[in-house]
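Morning. Coffee machine broken again, so started the prediction first thing and wrote up yesterday's gels while waiting. Chain of 154 residues, entered below exactly as on the submission form.
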Amino acid sequence: MAKLTISKINKLNKTLDKKRKIYILEDNDEVNICVEFKESLIDKVVMDYIAILEQLTTSSTISADLMRGTAGILHLFMIREFSDVPMIPKDNGDIQKLVDVTYALYDTGIMEAVIEGFDHEQVQKVYSKLDASSKRAGELMGELAIKQTTKTQE
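Came back before lunch.
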């Protein structure tokens, strides 16, 4: 048995930084994508997406167009974290801007091309984490609702 060392941890972490090139669109534009998705970045994608949804549920002024546009934001966040596609805001504060960029990437075929370029198993990791997180978030919301109801009845 080998002892776990700092150099081994660094080496393992470095293997997760591997990228590969894909070529998209008619001009064969080059995009660098991650070969393997880091768990910490998967968590970031999922938490950022859930935060956007939470923001929308608490907002009093949501247009139907904005609501429809949020469907592609999960893919936008995947592209932001796991590729070098430009133009994607790092800040999640302006949901309309995120939706506008989502539509731009979707309408030009860039979103589909990059998502298809990712390893299917890696994309599934994001979906699985979102599913697990959504269930847990739902459970927590249910627990909070029960606690609130109990306090009100006392």
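Residues 22 and 117 are 7 Å apart (CA to CA). Going to sketch it on the whiteboard this afternoon.
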